[in-house]
Design a protein that fits this description.
Blueprint lengths: L1 H16 L16 E7 L7 E5 L2 E2 L19 E2 L6 E3 L2 E9 L8 E9 L4 E11 L4 E8 L10 E8 L7 E7 L5 E8 L3 E2 L3 E4 L1 E9 L5 E10 L4 E7 L17 E6 L2
Length: 259
């Protein structure tokens, strides 16, 4: 997010400098005070651009001079995984089809109020209805704290699988073999608290309440000290799982860095 703001400021300076002294303006104002990240985790959903009201806040680079028709594809995170800065306030956040067919048709809308100084994530989730051209979506706050202890990390779990039961995420250190529950049991469209863990490499798994059987697994995930991560369950629970999140509809555990 900071890189985008710095680049925008530099481009403004370059553009204004070429227009003469009379064109100079004050560009030292504060950046937008809220931040949001966008995920397309709706199974079989088309590529989308994300909007706040009618303002597009994610984009895909294009070499043709025209807007990309790819958008953020399933399994992707908008803006290269970075937070987008946005003015605090009430919005309708939406994912809109990026392709030429049904261009800009909103397949999900979520009314949300974004507060100054806070971080958020919007998820397209569940399974896309190709007839109605709709998919579930939800917005949650990302309430992580500034991390100054570089021997530990913070991790939370989000459940974006519409046809799965509530699950608990477990992280097992591959060296000490100590297993930690990452927050509590999380239902669909919800996220748990950020849980502090020693930095290291972990085998991840989720389980239903009262069961010792793993529902989803992902081996050898590195959590670096001083960083904050979100692990999200996505996919169709009726389809065989994948440990690498490679297939379009297989269930898996996505790992995204918040900070």
């Amino acid at each position: 997010m900071n890189r985008y703001r710095s680049l925008a400021a530099l481009l403004c300076v370059a553009a204004l400098a070429s227009c003469g002294k009379e064109a100079l303006q004050n560009i030292t104002g504060a950046p937008p005070g809220a931040s949001i990240k966008f995920f397309n985790f709706g199974v079989n959903a088309p590529g989308v651009n994300f909007y706040a009201n009618d303002t597009k806040v994610t984009a895909i680079s294009s070499t043709t001079g025209s807007e990309s028709t790819t958008g953020t594809a399933y399994g992707g995170v908008g803006n290269g995984g970075l937070y987008a800065g946005i003015v605090p306030g009430a919005y309708t956040l939406s994912g809109r089809i990026a392709a030429a067919t049904d261009k800009n048709l909103a397949i999900a809308n979520v009314p949300s109020t974004l507060v100054d100084g806070k971080y958020y994530s919007m998820y397209l989730s569940g399974i896309y209805d190709g007839t109605a051209k709709t998919v579930d979506a939800f917005v949650i706050e990302d309430p992580f704290v500034p991390q100054t202890d570089f021997t530990s990390t913070y991790v939370r779990f989000v459940n974006a699988i519409s046809n799965a039961n509530p699950m608990t995420l477990y992280a097992k250190n591959t060296v000490t073999l100590t297993e930690y529950p990452v927050g509590g049991e999380i239902a669909y469209k919800n996220g748990g608290a950020f849980t502090q863990l020693p930095s290291g490499v972990y085998d991840l798994s989720t389980r239903y309440s009262g069961s010792s059987t793993n529902v989803l697994t992902r081996p050898a995930v590195s959590f670096s000290g001083g960083r904050v991560y979100t692990i999200t369950a996505r996919g169709d629970i009726t389809v065989a799982p994948s440990t690498a999140c490679a297939a379009a509809n297989k269930t898996c555990l996505d790992n995204t860095t918040n900070r």
